[in-house]
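During the second half of the funding period, the structural biology subgroup turned its attention to how the target accommodates small molecules. The most pressing case was 2'-O-acetyl adenosine-5-diphosphoribose, which had performed well in the primary screen but for which no bound structure existed. We therefore specified the complex as follows and requested a full 3D prediction, including the ligand pose.
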Amino acid sequence: MSKPGYAADQNPRILEGNDLKALAKYMKSDSCQNVFLMLGAGVSTSAGIPDFRSPGTGLYANLARLNLPFPEAVFEIGFFKKNPIPFYTLAKELYPGRFRPTHTHSFITLLHSHSLLHTCFTQNIDTLERRAGVPAHKIIEAHGSFATQRCIDCKTPFDADKIKKAVLSEEIEIPRCERRRCKGLVKPDIVFFGEGLPDQFHKSIRNLRKADLLIVLGTSLTVHPFASLVDLVPNDCPRVLINLDEVGDFNKPDDVLFLGKCDDIVRELCKELGWEEELDAAWEKTKDSLDADKQERELEPEPEESTEDEVEKITKNLEQALKVNDKNDEKQPSSKVSDVVQPELVE
Ligand code: OAD
């Protein structure tokens, strides 16, 4: 059934067309009240954070040449228990604070200020949604984030400043639980393959029934259960994919694909919505958060690096860490991610 009050008589579809103009018109109509977002690593690549699966620049392609049993092992809980060094090496490179939110992140704040944003589901651990100014209660970090951390054995929370110091220290320091009888490994509350997703994720997915619009941005939709959220919106809810390449299964009448860089497409959409100036103003504000972080970490302003440079640096550091580790440690058994994942987070 079409939504009342919007093109119901003339057209069984809710959107009047497959273009940004039609999408913007729907977003400005009374029928569109609850917008849900699903984000992946592609929304942060223009901030300089590599995604996972893009050929050439994706993290996994670059980690494949290293001495890991399989690239995803960096985020696999069984592997972490045996060898936390690769994760902590990567964590140092990816640690929040060095990266500025993108225009796409600022677009999310506009959805909120225009009272359209219901929930932003994100797979990203970079916290750039929060840094852009999206209120925390609107964000579900489905794969966790660097914001909190705990012992993987006794689950005792670990001090934020201490882990930050350990992660960012010159030599890799692996933080350990401070309870005398425990001394377990400490890990940021990032969901690893083989771990369950946060309660908040499970509680929030029922809200998708209220969706008037779902926008999926910058994800390959390969990791479940996150990828399955696209099927939980009502049948007549328009679903929009904004991505470099075609992914998932978007073939319902009101599914629309916009292929390209999400920052570019979001800007075009903002033009149609009459929000372009607001977008630039919102993005301008994100500069301050970066400056504060840089001062805190005593970093000199760095020349801008491309994603290729960034991923090369990350891989080199990881390579170095693994070589050091190899000297002290026995070789890890070889296995594939599919052998080790639990039902919760799977590819
Ligand atoms: P992927 O690397 O699998 O997919 C990123 C998608 O974004 C690809 O389809 C790219 O083509 C697209 N993309 C890249 N840059 C883009 C841009 N500027 N504009 C638009 N699209 C762009 O990343 P995710 O789908 O987020 O989990 O990966 C899902 C999960 O797999 C991650 O959360 C992570 C990983 O293993 C864990 O580590 C637990």
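Two results from this model are relevant to the next phase. The pocket of 2'-O-acetyl adenosine-5-diphosphoribose is lined by residues 40-42, 45-46, 51-54, 58, 72, 75, 123, 143, 191, 218-220, 222-223, 243-245, 247, 261-262, 345 (CB under 6 Å). The longest strand covers residues 144-151.
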